[in-house]
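Protein chain data
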Amino acid sequence: MLPVSNVARRHLSPAFLESDSPWREAVVRDAWASLGSTVLELPLVAALDETAEGPGWEVIGREHLPSPGTRAICFSAHIGNWEVLPRASS
């Protein structure tokens, strides 16, 4: 694994005092796997089916949104790629 994994190992030990080394190694490995999956998903976002709102998403209840320039809180389903919400809300 990358040397930066040592940072995770150092932080896991005091945060999970009763954890053993194999458990911490599994957490570090799984964190890298999750990051890798997210990075590999990014190019696929543009390949999602095009809708009126954009590729891969549909806005329901747009009439309830405030005027442009005002603030709103938006909720979205977790589809594994959090980068979609800002693009969808622009």
